[in-house]
What does this fold into?
Amino acid sequence: MKKMAFFFFVPLLLTGCSGNEKTIEVYDVLDDAQKRVEVREVLDSNEDVYSGTAIFVDQQLLVAVQAKPWLDYKKEKIEKELTKQFEERFTEFDVLVSADYKLFWEANKLMEEKDQQKVNDKVKKLKELEKEET
Amino acid sequence: MEQEQYKNLEQQITPPTPYMKNALIAFFVGGIICTIGHAITYFYIIFFDFTEKTVGNPTVSTMIFLSMLLTGFGLYKKLGQFAGAGSAVPVTGFGNAVISAAIEHRTEGVVLGIGGNIFKLAGSVILFGVASAFFVALIKLILVTIGVVQW
It folds into this structure.
């Protein structure tokens, strides 16, 4: 019985990380289709990212991404690469790319928010949070 | 009986240590403790203003606090007997080491008993942690000053 359970769980553990569908969401008050396409292009071209959320608000761009499992050690490199790419494409925006789960979680919560001022405040708060070291 | 004979006899009678089983139990119990730690990490990230960078401190203190409570209630001892290194290696083992020393010496008084012995086991961990952190920071400072790496 114990052996049976073992053989049953090992494939479950091994297949837990599969599933290749990238979920990319963009929040934009002006609803500019071009921006959506560009964000999608950048995130789709990056192999190490499996999910991303971008928020355009008041000349600020917050991109929260999630690195694939086992690639946590590459997070800073991924952030740097993506920041460079986004800054090239959106020169008029103040860009922040983060692979932190907190920012990803909060950014996804903001997707439902209608009040632009609230989104703006929240993005500012998240940017400050991201800078904290201890 | 010759020494050699005694040795042989002793080896025949002593039951073999189940290394593989012990390692497996330690692996799984240690893994479960770390999973609980991860759940606490996500709890702090989702419900409080902690990022992945800053969430380590509250998570570690919560885990240590929980293991201290369990030690006080006598439950961590049972877990330790069952899981061995699986319960000692994670940071919860640290809380256990602090509180079990305090419990052991409480009859000797608050200052000389508890105060003097509370860090008997865990003190070396703190000392090694602080000292090695100091030296690592020193090496990094030198490397940054030379210009090899950045902060």
In short: The first helix of chain B runs from residue 3 to 13.
